[in-house]
Structure formats: structure tokens, C-alpha cells
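Possible regression after last week's pipeline update?

I re-ran a chain I had predicted before the update to compare outputs. Posting the input and the new output here so someone can diff against the archived version. Not blocking, just want to make sure nothing changed silently.
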Amino acid sequence: MDIDAGDIVSHEPSGEEWVVAVPYGPEEIIPMGWPLSFAKTKDCKLVKKATPEEKKKHLERLSNSSEKTDPRVINATRILRDEYK
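New output (post-update):
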């Protein structure tokens, strides 16, 4: 099962649980929070899969952010455009 936007993962190197903002290519994710960071999907273990409704709502919230240059916002907007035409 692929890790996707809105999922909750355990980041093994840090021991932290994160909400996935967006996937970033086939092998990375960008988690929510500050500072902006990237993580390898191989370092993450899925804790809770977002439902399709949760995923869409999560992406809509991100895409409505005023931080239009943030890669989380850019990718959320692209995913909404591509997957929810």
C-alpha cells in the first residue's frame, strides 16, 4: 500500500509520527509542519491510511494556503487537478 497525502506515518529515524502533506516523487514524502522537510518513504511506516474523503479534504486545505511557493501547496494543487478533474 503506497503512502499518500493525508496518511499518518511513523518516521523510523526520528521516532516521530507525521501527517503526510504530499508524496514527492516515487521515493519521498513531504510531511506537514515546520520547517519544511523531506523524507524517504523507505524510512516511513504507515500507521493510518487516509480515507479517500480525508485525502481530498486534506489536499483542498493545502491548496487553499496563501503560501503558493511552498512545495506542499504546489503538489497538493497538482494532485487535485490530476486526480479530481
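Follow-up from reviewer: compared with the archived run. The radius of gyration is 12 Å. Marking as no regression found.
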